[in-house]
Amino acid sequence: MRRKTAEMGPRREVAYGPETWEHLKELRGRAAAVLEALKRSAIDGSVFGSVARGDVKPSSDVDVFIPDTVSSIGVSLALDGQGILERKIVQATPRALVKAQLVLENGTNVIFPLVRPRQIELEFYRFGGEVGLEGIRDNCRACGVDKRLMFIRPTEEGHIETPLSDLAPGWVAKQLGVGQAIVEERMRVLERRADVGRTGVYLDRPLAPDDSFEQVLDELINSDPALRRRIASQ
Question: What proportion of the chain, given as a percentage, has pLDDT over 90?
Answer without folding.
Answer: 79
